[in-house]
Design a protein that fits this description.
Elements (H helix, E strand, L loop, with lengths): L2 H11 L3 H23 L2 H18 L9 H15 L14
Helix pairs in contact: 1-2, 2-3, 2-4, 3-4
């Protein structure tokens, strides 16, 4: 993980919305593709992503290891997708950087 992202995670945990914006931009592709793998529908995936980021923002201060931000965001996205009724990954998409 780069130091800027790590510092932004820590800043976001302290309530800094600009730092959270950097966390959002850095993790969005991973979060979106995770949601899309569960539902297979772009519009629903966008709703899952929105709800996941609301949860991420509300709970980022509880993240004990800033270096695990990608995995933590993915876990929240999976739980959010499951809340929508998607119990397992149904689709596979290549993430292109």
């Amino acid at each position: 993980m780069n130091i800027e992202l790590r510092n932004s995670v820590l800043g976001a945990a302290g309530g800094n919305t600009k730092d959270f914006g950097y966390v959002y931009a850095s993790t969005y592709i991973k979060v979106y593709h995770t949601a899309l793998e569960y539902c297979g529908n772009k519009e629903i995936a966008e709703n899952i992503v929105h709800d996941a980021y609301v949860c991420i923002w509300a709970n980022i201060r509880t993240l004990s290891n800033p270096d695990g931000i990608f995995e933590w965001c993915e876990n929240i996205t999976v739980l959010t997708a499951k809340g929508y009724g998607y119990k397992e990954r149904k689709h596979s998409y290549d993430i292109k950087s």
